[in-house]
Specification:
The chain is mainly alpha-helical and 153 residues long. Helices cover 40% and strands 7% of the residues. It folds into two domains: 59 residues, no CATH class; 70 residues, no CATH class. One of its GO terms (biological process) is SRP-dependent cotranslational protein targeting to membrane.
Length: 153
């Protein structure tokens, strides 16, 4: 499921990859409410007997108040099991700064009394850096609900 409906370029690449991986794409078009799309997709997935719904909010900037408000709404309305921050390993400590700002923005823009924050991280683009331990080490002092290492190439 992709919920970034503002940028036209965000609407097309997933079709290519979804077809290759047998992942069904739930898409409702351009300029729609992300929280509503996620709610529809989750209902659709339940009706189809799917085990997992991955909601990709693509390219949110922590300093963009309207996008962070929409993200906080999406999380509050849909109560996901897990909220993950996806960052690039190649940015190093900047990813930690992004994560901290994301959590702050989620807290500031949430409609809930107790805002839901990020549960964990996914680091991408490990193939672009030499010191993989250094990239992971940047996040050592942060506490998450759950930590899993899927694979590191």
């Amino acid at each position: 499921l992709r919920t970034h409906t503002r940028r036209l370029t965000a609407l097309h690449p997933p079709e290519k990859h979804g077809g290759r991986t047998m992942v069904q794409l739930f898409e409702k078009g351009y300029g729609k409410d992300a929280a509503g799309i996620a709610m529809e997709a989750i209902a659709f997935a339940r009706n189809q007997g799917f085990d997992v719904v991955l909601v990709d909010t693509a390219g949110r900037m922590q300093d963009n108040a309207p996008l962070m408000t929409a993200l906080a709404k999406l999380i509050t309305v849909n109560t996901p099991d897990l909220v993950l921050f996806v960052g690039e390993a190649l940015v190093g400590n900047e990813a930690v700064d992004q994560l901290v700002k994301f959590n702050r923005a989620l807290a500031d823009h949430s409609m809930a009394q107790t805002p839901r924050l990020i549960d964990g991280i996914v680091l991408t683009k490990f193939d672009t850096i030499d010191d993989k331990d250094l990239a992971e080490g940047s996040f050592q002092g942060l506490k998450f609900k759950e930590t899993k290492t899927l694979n590191r190439f």
